[in-house]
Design goal:
There is one protein chain. With 472 residues, the protein is an alpha+beta fold. Among the domains are: 140 residues, Cathepsin D, subunit A, domain 1, CATH 2.40.70; 72 residues. The chain is built from 12 helices and 25 strands. The strands form 6 sheets. Strands 23-22-21-20-24-25 form a 6-stranded antiparallel β-sheet. A hairpin with a 6-residue loop joins strand 21 and strand 22.
Amino acid sequence: MILKENKVCLELHLTGGGNNTGNTWYLDNGASNHMTGDPAKFKELNRNITGKVRFGDGSAVEIMGKGSVLFQCKDKSQWLLHEVYYIPRLKSNLVSLGQLIEVGHSVSLDDDFLEVVDKVSGKLVIRVERLVNRLYKIELKLADPVCLMGSIGEPAWLWHARLGHVNFKALKMLVEKNMAAGVPMVDHPEQVCHGCLAGKQTRSSFPRSTSFRAEKPLQLVYVDLCGPISPPTPAGNKYFMLLVDDHRRWMDVSMLKCKDQAVDVFVRYKAEMQNQTGEKIKMLRSDRGGEFLSKLFAGVCEEARIKRQMTAPYTPQQNGLVERRNRSIMEMARSMLKSMKLPGKFWGEAVRHAVYLLNRLPTRPMGEKTPFEAMNGRKPRLGHLKVFGCLAHAKQTTPHLKKLEDRSQKLVYFGVEEGSKAHRLYDPVQNKIVVSRDTVFEEAVSWDWDKSSADGLGEFQVSGEMFGEYTD
């Protein structure tokens, strides 16, 4: 059960039975959560979320779901309000100012106006005048998420998909500041596609900056283990381990079957990074997970004279940088999987590709330099990227093909093969990875896992509806 305190006026906001109507939303400083009584306002609603909201007089109403509401702004951009409770007895739509502050907005009251600003982008989200009854209410028009597969012919949406559903502000900055090569200029209002809606969550209240920043490579390295993730990958991996260099914000990710493999991953990372940079890891920051408290892991650090910093129990905010990176990776991976309807077992491939992209995209602490440039001393080239999960036609390299045999093979694009200038492709028929350079892509076409012919080969379709499983 979920119990939330909420001190709002019952006469104003509650009704005995019906749903609310209209697009009027009240900005309420006393509401602990965003709420609405109209299920039609949700673009995504999870009815499995239940509980109660309790009011100041001790009465309570039932929560019958939680989801996201998408609004259309005047400048054609969109604003996505996450974690909105569906409460059938509520006749008013409430926006919780406290919840907005927690997820990265600033709220100011000046004279007769209330303003809500996104602290990350600096964009003014809401400006509303106070009414004579001291209430703040605004008319917010609902919006529909963009169908990515239907819009992928537009350069803005094509590169939005190629770069893992990156926001349009970051995409524009990437080109304007000359941070990467191979990407065309895109000037597009901030909007949300179906993949973004399903995959991205509201920002958590981790601190946005720290008092200490490493001055040299490997002076401070963050490590965290994410999982278990279900379903496991075809290879049986249930976790991924992320290591982040604080100075360059370069990320390294590895898939793990069990937590005991963490020490082997760290030993390999330490050797590779020290060989590449000529520097040694000075300090390692982690949580107090058993994998990092083991004698074996501690012995590796002690032998290398690596100092340890550990978070207080149940305080992930102290390891905020890697926690934020984990969240960004999972948001991007979910968006790529959802937009192309890929089976869940592909999460490992999506996570690997998300890290590849995020290392080459703007991140605020690095200013006008990407982690890739900080790591390698040159700007990344992104012209080779395609939409994750799209259809690829790879040239058949089997020798002695018969005259009438196909010269290409239908595969699924899984990103860039690490350590080579080639594409990483998946063969759904033989359940194997294929590495190829000679490939032609159909980025608006995806594999239909639900329809298959007698020989087991699936059909391809433009609609993006894909279902099925991938096994070793």
